[in-house]
Amino acid sequence: MNGAEGNPAAEAKPVEDVQGDMRWMSQHIRFVQECKDAEPDVLFVGDSMVQLMRQYEIWTEFFSPLHALNFGIAGDTTCNVLWRLQNGELDNIRPKVVVLWVGTNNHEHTAEQVAGGILAIGQVLISRLPKAKLVVLGVLPRGERPNPLRAKNAAINGFLRLWLPQLGQSKAQLLDVSKEFVHSDGTINPRDMFDFLHLTASGYRIIAKPLSDLLLQILEETPEERRASLV
């Protein structure tokens, strides 16, 4: 199941507008418009884990200086992200790195299917942006205590470790910090995840530093060089 064929998590689909306010499509259209003017070095794409980054200082501190675009939409699945990327959100931009963070909302799919959906997104990104590198963030644990969804998300990350090398060792890599959120007694602290799913400011800091270091390494810039370029 490490490919798109026959995998429901790798079928490109827009979000059904059940509320009737066109919010999801409006956000997608805004992202397509941003592509016409922006020249990002880094593109973030995914669900609410990506979207909410912009509300915290870590975005301004770590990622805005990297000329980053944030194309996160809350509730998105691999199917929705795949549709967005195939319908304008990669037009006119040539980022050097794409950060992909999605999968925790794929409730209808198995861990194997979700990982296959993420791989399918990676294949689209590498096909459309052949010079870009891909960083896939591991799906985080969820729930205050051990539960089936945690086990599923851990399995997704396991499949990703096996399958991402198919995209090319120099093209794609997994950054998985999920173990940093689980204490020795198996609990997650609400100081890191306020609802045991979405991250707080301190929770985002757990991932921001290793991700920033990796992005700077890929961009071949030290923090000092990046700061100097902004002066």
Characterization of this structure:
The chain is of the alpha/beta class. It has helices at about 25-35, 50, 55-65, 80-85, 110-130, 150-165, 200-220, 225-230, and strands at about 40-45, 70, 95-100, 135, 170-175. Strands 2-1-3-4-5 form a five-stranded parallel beta sheet, sandwiched between helices. Helix 4 runs parallel beside helix 5 and helix 5 packs across helix 6. GO terms for molecular function: 1-alkyl-2-acetylglycerophosphocholine esterase activity; platelet-activating factor acetyltransferase activity.
Mean pLDDT: 94
Count of the separate structural domains: 1
Helix content: 40-55%
Radius of gyration computed on alpha carbons: 17 Å
Strand content: 5-15%
How many distinct helices?
8
* Number of DSSP-assigned strands: 5
Q: How widely separated are the two ends? A: 49 Å
Characterize the main sheet. Answer: 5 strands, parallel
What is the 3D shape? globular
The CATH class is identified as Alpha Beta
Give me the CATH fold name.
Answer: Rossmann fold
Structural class: alpha/beta
Name the CATH architecture.
Answer: 3-Layer(aba) Sandwich
Instruction: Provide the low-confidence segments as ranges.
Output: none
The run of helices and strands is: HEHHEHEHEHEHH
Q: Going across the major beta sheet, what is the strand order?
A: 2-1-3-4-5
Give the CATH superfamily: SGNH hydrolase
